[in-house]
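Dear support,

We are seeing what looks like truncated structure output for some complexes. This example has four components. We would appreciate it if you could run it in full and send us the complete C-alpha cell output so we can diff it against ours.
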Amino acid sequence: MPQRNISPHLQIIQQIETTTKLSGEQREALMTLPLRVKQISGKSDVVRIGERPHEACVILNGLACRYKIASGGRRQILSLHFSGDMPDLHGLHVKTMDHAIGAITATSVAMIPHEAMKALISEHPSLADVFTRQAMIEGSIAREWILNLGQRTGSERIAHVICEVFMRLRALKLADSVSFRLPISQAELGEATGLTSVHVNRVLQKLRGAELIASQRDLHRIIDWEGLKSAGDFDSSYLHLRRQVLAA
Amino acid sequence: MPQRNISPHLQIIQQIETTTKLSGEQREALMTLPLRVKQISGKSDVVRIGERPHEACVILNGLACRYKIASGGRRQILSLHFSGDMPDLHGLHVKTMDHAIGAITATSVAMIPHEAMKALISEHPSLADVFTRQAMIEGSIAREWILNLGQRTGSERIAHVICEVFMRLRALKLADSVSFRLPISQAELGEATGLTSVHVNRVLQKLRGAELIASQRDLHRIIDWEGLKSAGDFDSSYLHLRRQVLAA
DNA sequence: CGCCTATTTGATCTGATTCAAACAATGTGG
DNA sequence: CCACATTGTTTGAATCAGATCAAATAGGCG
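Here is the complete output from our reference environment:
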C-alpha cells in the first residue's frame, strides 16, 4: 500500500466521494470529526468478533479486511478495506460485532467515538443518509462476493477481486491507469475467494500466462483490462462509483 | 408457505420485532403506511436488475429471493424472504437495483411508495434508524452467506441454510418447535448454496440418513436440532434475533 | 549467513459436476 | 377419468476442478 499524505479527514471525504457527492457544508462538517489515530500491526485485529465497540474505525494507511472463522479454523475474508473506508459503520445500529476487522499489513486507523458520530449526525441530519448509503453499498459489494463464491470458477474469482480492487483504488487515486500496489499474499487471496493458496498460485500463473496481468511482489500491473474484466465476469456497477470517478 | 391471516402492516411490524423492539408510537406510525397489494406469480420478478424503483416492497404470502446472474446464465440466490421482509429497503439510498428480487412460489407483495416512506420517517425520525438497522442485519446475513459459500462443504452449507430458515420462520411464528413449510426445490436450494441440484439431492439424503431432518414435499421436520446445528456450523447470532424471540 | 515467510512445483485424492436416464408427483385438457 | 405433458426427485457412471500432502525454491531481513 502506498503511503497517503493527506489528512484522515480528507481520506474519509475522498472515499465517500467515490460514490456520493457531498455538499460543501457536509464536507466541512466531516472535517470536524474528532478522531484518534492508532497503529495496528500486521495480522492483528482492529475489532474482534463479539465486541460491542463504542467507536467506529476508519482505515488510513495499510490494508485491512473483515473476516469470519468457520469451524475448523478456516478463515473467510469478507471484504478488503483501505484509505478512508469505514468498515464498522453498522456498529451504530447493531451493537455486537458478528465478524472481526483485521489488519493484513501494518495499518493506521482512526477511531471516532459513536457519540461524536451521533452528535455530528444530529447537527447535520443529511449525513445520516450519507453514512447509511455507504453501508448499503458495502451490502451491495457483499452480494457480489456471494455471487463470486457461489457461481464462479477459481480463475474467474481471482480475476474478479483483482478488478474490484483495481477499480476501487483507482477511484481513490491510489492506482494509476494500469497498476497498483496491494500487499496481499496468495494465501490471503485464497481466504477471500474460497480457494487454497496452492490453487491461487496456479490460477495466477494462468492469468499471467494469458497476459492479463503481471505482478512482482506487491505491485500488480493490468496488461489487458478488457480481457481481465471478461475473465472475471466483472461489471463495476455494483460498486456504485460516481460517473466522474469512472471517467477519470 | 402457510397462508398468513394477519394484515400486511402487522406482518411488517412482526418481522421488525423479531430483531428490534418498537415503541407503541412507532408501531402506530407503521400502521399508517399506504400500501398496494400485488400478486406475483411463481418464478417471476418483483423487481428487476437495473431498475430504479420508486416503491419499496414487502413480502407477504409466499417465498421470494434476491438473486444475481453470472455470465453463462448461472443464477445465485443471495437471500430468502418471506412474511414481512422488506428486501429492497436499500432502494431508498441507492437508486439502481444491482440485483433482482424474484418470487419462488406465487407470492403476494405490498408496494410502498418511497415518498410515503420518506414522509413517515420525517414525521417519526426514529423509524429511520429502525429501517437502517433492518438493512444492516441483512448485511450481516449476507456476510454469513459469504462464509457459507467460501469455507463450508456441501452438507454444511445445506444444513446451515436449513437452520437459518428454521430460526427465521420460528421467530415469525411460522414454524412450530420442530417443523416448517418451505416450498423450495432442490435446484433452488442449489442456487442458494452454490451446488448442483444433483449434489443437493445426495446431501439431503445424507442428512436424512443421519436422522437430522426429514422432509416430505414442502414440509420439513427437524429431528435432531443440536445435530443439525453442528452439521451446519450454525450459530444464530448473526441473525440478531431478540432474546425473547429466541426463548419463545 | 541463517531464519522465516511466501511462492512454486509435483503427485495424488476427492467432493462436486456433468451427462443421462429413470421415476414420481402434479396438473391439464379432451 | 385417463392420456399426456411438465416439473421435481432420484440413481448411476464418468470426469474434473480444486484440495491435500509434501517438498523444493526463492526472497527478505536481522
